[in-house]
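ok new one. same drill as before - structure tokens go in, u give me an amino acid for every spot. 578 of them this time. try not to just spam alanines like last time pls lmao
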């Protein structure tokens, strides 16, 4: 029983403590809400509305002011009392034990404070916008007033520089002045919102006027002075050059000058109506057309001294090339009697003559044009540059043709020397063979020897013709030299084979009585030597048999032979050198 009593006492005590804790927490929640509400009162909107009212707002600005003021009254008359009721509800709920309702009231009170805070900030931002817009318009009014006064002074003081545009500029200035007055009135009457729309138009119009006033003087100066002076200068210069017998290709100077003058007049009228963009584009076109006329005059003026200087030079050049071609013709006619000219030398010479005649005719036509006052010097200058190039090409080809023909007599003499050399070489070859007293020569060798003799005889016949074909003779020389080199190799081989075969057979005869195989080989080799004149086969048969009998013996015979031959050749070379 005592235990139960103690338990009840403990539960009652715990409940009491919990209730006390809950009341303290509720009091703190109510205090926090109250403190949050006090922060709302720190924004002095009453003072700001009082300042805004002194701005004497009207129109759209006044409507916006009224909207902000009504919203502020709603804040004071509705939102603040609702917040006070919420705080009271939190405090009242704290006396009981309905925890859920207390928390709900506390959340509602805080949300009401947050909504009120957002409303205050929105009102404050709206008032600030009215202040800023009003301030901006005052500053814009001051700047526009300065710019307007400056533009008006410039129009008054520099009206001569605007030419026909002055009336339209003054009309623009007058329109701007009316808009400016409207903007000033709206700003001073306290309607910055309405003034904002007018300000945009006013800025655009003022900037446009300022742009025109900056661009027109230069355009007017070009059209009224610079272009006119340039047209007059070109007209004067053109007439002066024509008087000095200058001419121009496709001469349309009069039409071009009239077209430029008309274009100047058209654009002066466009200045009057302020078609500035179109005038700027047109002035560039006029400047380009004038530059082309200046260039045309300068081109003719610069070309004449070149033509006058080069006319004498080209005349001398033509004479030089023609004389050189005549000399070349005489030389070709002489050479044609003794040589066959295979490379169109005479035809090329005639072609040079035709080219020179064509150049000379054009040259003479241009001289006549200069004498008759009909010359277009820039065209003649270009023609003369081309003539110089053509004459240089002809002269170069003449030199090449001369170089190719001047060598013909020397080539003939070289061929005759080669013919004599070939004849002597063949005699020496025959003598070498005769000196070895060979029993005979193979048909192949005799055919090769006879073929070279025929080639030499054919060359000699070609050399004795009334007209020598150097190209054909050169080909024959190449063929003969090649065939003689081949014959020289065959001759050396024939003599070496014959000599070695004879020496080897003589050495092998020592073994005839004791070696029947060598005896048979020797007999066969001697038959090839004496009857068939196949010295290579004779040597092959006896050398193999001897090597079989005595290894290395033929190699020694061969080495001794070639060493002796080499020694003899060296001695002969020394004798010839001495």
């Amino acid at each position: 029983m005592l235990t139960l009593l103690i338990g009840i006492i403990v539960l009652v005590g715990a409940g009491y403590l919990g209730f006390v804790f809950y009341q303290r927490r509720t009091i703190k929640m109510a205090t926090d809400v109250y403190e949050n509400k006090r922060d709302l009162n720190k924004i002095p909107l009453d003072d700001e509305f009082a300042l805004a009212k002194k701005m004497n707002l009207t129109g759209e600005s006044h409507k916006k002011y009224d909207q902000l003021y009504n919203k502020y009254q709603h804040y004071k008359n509705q939102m603040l009392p609702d917040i006070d009721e919420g705080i009271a509800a939190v405090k009242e709920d704290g006396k009981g034990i309905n925890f859920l309702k207390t928390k709900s009231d506390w959340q509602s009170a805080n949300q009401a404070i947050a909504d009120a805070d957002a409303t205050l900030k929105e009102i404050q931002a709206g008032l600030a916008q009215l202040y800023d817009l009003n301030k901006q318009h005052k500053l814009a009014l001051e700047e526009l007033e300065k710019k307007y006064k400056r533009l008006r002074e410039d129009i008054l003081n520099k009206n001569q520089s605007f030419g026909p545009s002055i009336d339209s500029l003054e009309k623009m200035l007058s329109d701007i002045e009316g808009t400016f007055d409207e903007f000033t009135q709206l700003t001073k009457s306290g309607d910055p919102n309405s003034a904002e729309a007018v300000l945009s138009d006013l800025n655009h119009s003022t900037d446009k006027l300022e742009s025109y006033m900056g661009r027109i003087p230069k355009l007017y100066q070009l059209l009224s002075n610079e272009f006119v002076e340039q047209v007059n200068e070109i007209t004067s210069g053109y007439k002066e050059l024509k008087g000095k017998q200058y001419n121009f290709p496709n001469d349309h100077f009069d039409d071009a000058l009239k077209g430029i003058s008309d274009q100047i007049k058209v654009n002066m009228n466009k200045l009057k109506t302020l078609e500035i963009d179109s005038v700027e584009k047109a002035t560039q076109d006029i400047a380009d057309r004038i530059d082309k006329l200046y260039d045309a005059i300068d081109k003719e003026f610069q070309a004449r001294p070149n033509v006058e200087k080069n006319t004498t030079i080209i005349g001398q050049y033509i004479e030089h090339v023609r004389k050189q071609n005549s000399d070349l013709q005489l030389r070709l006619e002489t050479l044609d009697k003794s040589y066959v000219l295979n490379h169109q030398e005479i035809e090329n010479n005639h072609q040079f003559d035709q080219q020179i005649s064509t150049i000379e005719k054009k040259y003479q036509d241009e001289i006549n044009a200069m004498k008759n006052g009909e010359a277009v010097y820039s065209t003649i200058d270009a023609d003369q540059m081309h003539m110089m190039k053509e004459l240089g090409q002809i002269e170069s080809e003449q030199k090449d043709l001369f170089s190719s023909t001047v060598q013909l007599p020397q080539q003939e003499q070289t061929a005759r020397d080669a013919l004599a050399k070939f004849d002597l070489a063949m005699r020496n070859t025959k003598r070498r063979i005769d000196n070895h007293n060979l029993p005979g020569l193979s048909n192949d060798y005799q055919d090769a020897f006879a073929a070279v003799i025929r080639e030499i005889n054919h060359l000699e016949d070609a050399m004795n013709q009334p007209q020598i074909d150097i190209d054909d003779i050169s080909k024959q020389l190449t063929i003969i030299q090649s065939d003689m080199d081949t014959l020289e190799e065959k001759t050396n081989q024939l003599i070496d084979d014959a000599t070695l075969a004879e020496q080897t057979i003589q050495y092998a005869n020592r073994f005839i009585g004791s070696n029947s195989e060598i005896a048979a080989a020797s007999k066969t080799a001697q038959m090839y030597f004496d009857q068939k004149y196949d010295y290579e086969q004779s040597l092959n048969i006896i050398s193999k048999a001897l090597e079989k009998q005595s290894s290395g013996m033929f190699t020694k015979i061969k080495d001794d032979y070639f060493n002796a031959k080499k020694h003899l050749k060296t001695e002969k070379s020394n004798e010839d050198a001495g």
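The first helix runs from residue 2 to 40. and btw Residues 156-289 form one domain.
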